[in-house]
Write a structure and sequence with these properties.
4 helices; Jelly Rolls; 8 strands; 32% helix; 139 residues; alpha+beta; four-stranded antiparallel β-sheet
Length: 139
């Protein structure tokens, strides 16, 4: 079932996108229920899926016992899907039941390559997120 534009238009990640860009993105997103204890992604594996939290709490575990929690609606998990290193840098586990939106790396790349303006906006947002997460991981 496709995701409605209304589901994503208020999320911070999508701010600054036109309605047409939101439609393009929404058409590729897939809703997914997540159960407590489920691992969304595992550190060191190829980054094949990008996630956006709609509900739930997730812990991202890193090397050397470091970890951080993500629970804000609209927060992304799996930024390495579209920028280097193209493998997950942490393991994300659901602390609660929740719901996420997902998009495969193939669909994501096709989207940003088919629309240069949208691609620039998205990569800029993901670069910012990656920098923030790297800082969290180094604390």
């Amino acid at each position: 079932m496709p995701v409605e534009v209304q589901t994503i238009e208020s999320l911070a990640f999508f701010q600054g996108l036109s309605y047409i860009e939101l439609e393009q993105f929404a058409s590729l997103l897939k809703p997914r229920s997540v159960k407590k204890g489920e691992v969304l992604l595992r550190q060191g594996t190829p980054a094949m899926t990008f996630f956006i939290i709609l509900s739930g709490t997730f812990t991202v575990s890193l090397e050397k016992g470091r970890a951080y929690t993500l629970d804000d609606k609209g927060t992304v998990i799996g930024w390495s899907t579209v920028i280097a290193p193209f493998e997950y840098t942490g393991t994300a586990t659901a602390d609660t039941d929740g719901e996420v939106l997902s998009i495969s790396s193939n669909d994501f790349f096709q989207l940003i390559q088919s629309n240069n303006a949208l691609g620039k906006k998205i990569i800029k947002k993901i670069d910012k997120i990656a920098s923030e997460r790297r800082a969290l991981g180094s604390k």
